[in-house]
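fold-stage: in
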Amino acid sequence: MIDIVFQPSEDVLDTLLAELIRDARTRGAIAISLIHLGVQGMLIQRLRAFGFLRRTEDSSLHVYVPGESELERALIEPGNWNFLNADADV
């Protein structure tokens, strides 16, 4: 299980995905599965460009933010959230 953190750059993300795939092949993996909870952004676009296919997933995320929180707007903006399999333990 891994997590991916990247700068908002297609070149950086492409390099990370290429290395992920190369490493998986070296280790003899026959498939790579990613669960992503987030908006349809750069990560999804680049995964599709690398040949990843979308499948149905039942995972969900619920966040409670008290109305007086200074971070409320940032926390309720879906574009600020990206979760993968490795985040399932939090």
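fold-stage: in (second)
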Amino acid sequence: MQNQLSKAEKFFIDKNMHLTVKQLAKELNIKASLVKYYLEEKEKEKEKVPDLFQRDKHNSTVMTAAQSSLGDELVQNGSVISEKHKNSIYVPNPDKSSK
């Protein structure tokens, strides 16, 4: 038995979250403790990173208010705009009024 999960095993676990730890371990022929550890670490990682993007009822990815605010702040500071993409960002002209 191994002490680390391969990418394929992690993928299998991620795609079969409906199974129990014991069922996953049996399917993969690995220790249940490895599966449990992977799931716990994944949960810890999930807690660290806020959900900045979510999926709507049509399974489209949508930006949350937190991501929008963060993006606006970074753009205003100029910290995320590379020279290559600087001309690709549209900034509405506040001088022109819409009819």
